[in-house]
């Protein structure tokens, strides 16, 4: 376990570099009997894939997934599911310059000092390309959660740079290039992103992910709390710098009389907890919000050093997302799904036969 | 591993309930040869202990720690270090009422549905009392990090409710009951907390933890990123609802030209990354900020339900912190220490013999 | 995880040295609702405890266990169960000699080189005293397996030195100091052990452990096979040098036509597999056999070296079992129970909802 | 972790079925900077591959390995190394019969009851074909151990059915189809195996694996003992029913005065311990012996049942090894290498900076 696996019972072990032969993962622990095809996974991959609008990287990877194992006659068998996505758009070019310098905001400097060797081509292992693997693995988790428990996991952008995007409706999220839940904001976002791109700069973003219909009782009490595992999963996404559950940082100025969600026979009166109390799901929606830093690769001159420790100036040209946050929505959904399925299985292991007479109250009143 | 252990190589396995015989933990993986006594641990415990001012719970627990194993003639032996803190201030009282109802904002409802049984005395396992164990284990981690690597881990409150507390100096943090780094704010905080208490309410808080002198190269690339493990650790603290690394949510409105920390031979030009790039430490200060919700136990009437699912009204009297965030400072320091020592050992395992000629630049210019 | 925990879902984290304040463990993952008292555990500890006959060590430890957490009103709560056994019979004596030399057959030399420091008192962490902890944890596992699945786990000695002990009946096993399943052999064993003791020597032993009523389907397919986890658990017992499942080494000279257990609607026709095929339980009895080396501490002069690397001669006096294998029976039962409960929970997690129409055939014909 | 990963720090996650698209694994935790090419791995795979003599299965798989990640410019980068072996010799045939019945001695019955679904083609996941993956991963481990520590890991058959094979010389082991260390035995073995094959039967086997030059101090004290992890690894090999370390079952009749290896300044006087004391390596050779059951697939009629639970008679035709033990030699070497590298890294993590003045005595006198 050197940092490339996550999940105790539904575990994903990821591999691959941006410009090597391919990327992929082994999903171990998927319950048997789930109907699964490459098309199920491809549908999620296509939501993340580059080249879909002018606001994301123009790299063109078909990102075609192959299931190498663990599925027989269209159903999972309980054995490991290996997924492989071949890399196809590795442009042949000279990486000599990148290989000897450290791009600001990137992992070049830290990888170099940690490993003493690094694959500089497209960022190697630290490339956001690796996140395709999580979306693929997450597609399996999502499907199981939906079919077994009716759980729906969805995300949308709430802010891109200075533009806040209110929530209007889930309906429109997949119909615009910004995963915006308010169609009336799309024109403003288009113009804003165009201006960012023209200024040879990039911006940060914020998004929200919600899981509905999670049963009460999933999670652990002290160290593998459901919200802690979610924070871990989200902060594992490239470029994420902040995570909130429920009220998040808003709780700092709340009073206890406001924050603590009251219970009524008709349901919880509010959801400041974001669906988790004491590390365990309440049955309310799991509410997560994350902050994503602006893309580090920009075409402006920036100061840095080279391997010899000498000062240099560099600008990064190429096919980069001006806001990496945009394509993070399916990734964040996938990460949340991976955490939830793991806790679903953990719950079944220890408490699968617990019966409680107390009625489970609805997540929300009315 | 049912949610009571953390750490891969320096692992802490916690046990105990608020009003049972005691709480404690087993620390496995501490390198041999570290000088360690109960006094080393007690010093940290005393910073967290209740009853030190009128602004925290008046529960009086001496919280005396006993080392049961793993230390011989004043030094760690490399074998597990078991720590035990006996509970002494369990007031004998009737918990019948609490046992049949679910306090809003608490884990009562979720524990009940998860386990079908719960120890209601003082919150049982979900009590913040368990955090004493982390402070104890963290004291060992802190000492090793300091002696082996010169790492200093410190925290201070940055906001209590609506009162922001600027950073002035580390010197004063331990000299006031609020872990405030600005002595001039103490009077205002005293008055503010008195007013909160009088209104029978509670408030949230925000604090910052910093680790200085962390070497470049600690962390993992994809899933057990240093910042992800920090987010996990922090969100595992009772009542934490948000975690930020470096710029945190502030990165949403930053441009790439601002956020990406430039490198110069004299050091990094800024630290928006908070000391972590690509999941691996940069050699800059690790900067973490967390949000802590207001205490859920307040003496105001609140709506809830009982085990039969019927509507009730309850108010929680007793010895509660009006702002649980205050005593969270040593806990957050401990959690950061636990994450760092684990990654120190992981780094040594995989990359302990890596040698790089590139100079390691200082964390900060000037 | 530095070698003091075992089990993925029902995990035992052990601590303690032979002559420190105490030994104990944290059991994490026990399902909630199991009736459990200290008496349940004490009963198993008493089967292992020293001083019960002249054929085992005369050290007198009451080995009284205290439950520190995880049990409320007589039932497990699903939270960690911490167990503590205080050491009481640490004779005050000078360990200076032992501290500077390495006893042949003991872990002194290896601990010293690994850790650079060791607690020499009574073997410190490497003392067989630590096995009391496993018996205590195993008592919980045994009880759950029996109550939930009707599983019965029993062991008996099959050979002590040159004396083979046939299986006659489980009835007599706990009625003689040798855990012999043949009462007619007890006199011979008494005389044999007396002669060994008089010759200032020790002997090896062999024992068999059986788990009945294990359902078909527990185990994992490739790396955490049920039999592999059993082999791991058994070899983790001090002094064990060999492990067999089913036919064991006898399979070397078997033909496929003999070894492969035929299936009939009335049950399996034989059990050469020892209850495990492809790493997964068959529903037949789990059959395990282990070899235990002779006690290393003997009162004869033996060659060794001291810390300076100089040749010395040493004999070990004190209160030692002339055959450590004798008291290993309850330990081996406990280890098997710990493996089985872990796989019971793992099975429930991944395959808890699998339904198969095929009848489960009985373990044995007739 | 559902039973398809092994290793804490150098972990192998395996995937694939006998007749699916391919088999492979992800090796996570390999230290950076190791020179590695597909040829290094292929050399070990070729030792295990089928079709090399008339005494093993005639299935013809080139078993060509592809490195998908983790290697850059001929060196490991510290990131995961994914290996893929495409399946090429899946004969198209009707598996209907096998799909509805359970072959005696195989995992058919247990997989079916565990998962409720199974890939019957060639045994699916339970096929010995999966062991190619371990040989591939083991090749990496072997190379690192050899280059970093000078460790040599070698195995040879010690018995096939009733024919014992004495050790004469390592030189000849790879020059005969039986991995025999005595060339004079080869004719007898040829004749013996021919007779077994003609009788439509199969036989068991026994082999020995040795690791030379392992430093003193690797291993863990209580639960992840080096010998326990070896036993686990070996018992994870298909068809293994017994494991011995050092004297193994021979210790049952030994006296303590014989078994306990004396230490002298010139080295240990014997190696009954098999290179492990108290779970930690002594610096002597690690000595392991395993028993492998006879091939279950034989062309004789055997009793079984079908999915409906009805009695049937079946014989298994096809391309099967008459003694699966023969090709197990490189697999057992690989498994030992995987355990050793994991403990090498674990040792470095916890005790990498321990310095002891005591001289390390040689493994053997003279």
Automatic annotation (TrEMBL), chains A, B, C, D:
Comment on bound cofactor: Reduced FMN (FMNH(2)).
Pathway(s) where this gene product acts: Metabolic intermediate biosynthesis; chorismate biosynthesis; chorismate from D-erythrose 4-phosphate and phosphoenolpyruvate: step 7/7
Entries under InterPro entries matching the protein: Chorismate_synth, Chorismate_synth_AroC_sf, Chorismate_synthase_CS
Domain of life: Bacteria
MF terms (GO), sorted A to Z: chorismate synthase activity
Binding-site list for NADP(+): 48, 54
Catalytic activity: 5-O-(1-carboxyvinyl)-3-phosphoshikimate = chorismate + phosphate
EC number(s) stated in the UniProt entry for this protein: 4.2.3.5
Binding residue positions for FMN: 125-127, 238-239, 278, 293-297, 319
Keywords from the named record: Amino-acid biosynthesis, Aromatic amino acid biosynthesis, FAD, Flavoprotein, FMN, Lyase, NADP
Cofactor(s) of this protein: FMNH2
Family annotation (NCBIfam families): aroC (TIGR00033), PRK05382.1 (NF003793)
PANTHER family associated with the record: CHORISMATE SYNTHASE (PTHR21085)
Family classification: Belongs to the chorismate synthase family.
Subunit structure: Homotetramer.
Function: This reaction introduces a second double bond into the aromatic ring system.
Protein name, as recorded: Chorismate synthase
């Amino acid at each position: 376990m050197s940092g490339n696996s996550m999940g105790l019972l539904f575990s994903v072990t990821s591999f691959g570099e941006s410009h090597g032969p391919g990327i992929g993962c082994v999903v171990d622990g998927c319950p048997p009997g789930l109907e699964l095809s490459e098309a199920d996974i491809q549908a999620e991959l296509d939501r993340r894939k580059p080249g879909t609008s002018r606001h994301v990287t123009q790299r063109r990877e078909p990102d075609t997934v192959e299931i190498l194992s663990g599925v027989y006659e269209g159903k999972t068998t309980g054995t490991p599911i290996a997924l492989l996505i071949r890399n196809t758009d590795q442009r042949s070019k000279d990486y000599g310059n990148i290989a000897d310098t450290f791009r600001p905001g990137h992992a070049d400097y830290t990888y170099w000092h940690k490993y003493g060797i690094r694959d500089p081509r497209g960022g190697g292992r630290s490339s956001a390309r690796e996140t395709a693997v999580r979306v693929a693995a997450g597609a399996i988790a999502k499907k199981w959660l939906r079919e077994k428990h009716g759980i729906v996991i969805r995300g949308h952008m709430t802010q891109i740079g200075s533009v806040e995007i209110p929530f209007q409706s889930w309906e429109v999220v997949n119909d615009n290039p910004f995963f915006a839940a308010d169609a009336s904001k799309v024109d403003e976002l288009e113009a804003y992103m165009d201006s960012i791109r023209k200024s040879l700069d990039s911006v940060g973003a914020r998004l929200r992910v919600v899981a509905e219909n999670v049963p009460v009782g999933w999670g652990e009490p002290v160290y593998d709390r459901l919200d802690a595992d979610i924070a871990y999963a989200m902060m594992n996404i490239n470029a994420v710098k902040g995570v909130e559950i429920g009220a998040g940082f808003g709780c700092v100025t709340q009073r206890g009389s406001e924050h603590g969600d009251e219970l009524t026979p008709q349901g919880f009166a509010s959801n400041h907890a974001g669906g988790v109390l004491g590390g365990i799901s309440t049955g309310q929606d799991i509410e997560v919000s994350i902050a994503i830093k602006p893309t580090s690769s920009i075409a402006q001159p920036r100061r840095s050093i080279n391997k010899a420790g000498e000062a240099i100036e560099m600008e990064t040209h190429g096919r980069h997302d001006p806001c990496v946050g945009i394509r993070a929505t399916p990734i964040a959904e996938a990460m949340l799904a991976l955490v939830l399925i793991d806790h679903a299985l953990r719950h079944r292991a220890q408490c699968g036969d617990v019966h409680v007479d107390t009625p489970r109250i609805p997540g929300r009143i009315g």
